[in-house]
Amino acid sequence: MTTRQVLIVGGIVGLLVSSAVLALFWFGVAGVLVVGKTDLMYVFWPASVMLVVGWCRTIPGVMITASAIAINCLLYMAVAYSLRVVVRLVAHR
User: Fold this and answer.
1) Quick check: 39 and 33 in contact, CB under 8 A?
2) 3-class DSSP state for residue 47?
């Protein structure tokens, strides 16, 4: 895969994870992401800590949510690119 394809896939995965978590919030069932004492929401979307109570109702809340989604997409893109670099380094040995 090219670097561009890897970054696009990473961004799409980040967007899908954010959308799934926000959908669970919307329906009020975000508690299903808790396994034992670990909240998987913070594992898969670390920037979700930024979310406020009015995440979908107020202008500042929507802007903060959009920022958290963008940060998550960038994080997933960085992870995808890092994995690509590591795989290429291992493959060349």
Assistant:
1) yes
2) helix
Paired with 35 in beta bridges are 38
Helix ranges (H only) for the chain are 3-27, 40-44, 59-91
CA 19 to chain centre: 9
> Residue 92: what pLDDT?
85
Query: What CA–CA distance (Å, rounded) separates 89 from 77?
Result: 18
Comparison of pLDDT for 28 and 80, the residue scoring more: 80
Residues in the chain: 93
Phi first, then psi, for residue 39 (nearest 5°) are -95, 110
Task: Say how far apart CA 70 and CA 76 lie, in whole Å.
Answer: 10
How many Cβ atoms sit within 10 Å of the Cβ of residue 62?
Answer: 14
Sign of torsion, CA 53 56 57 59?
positive
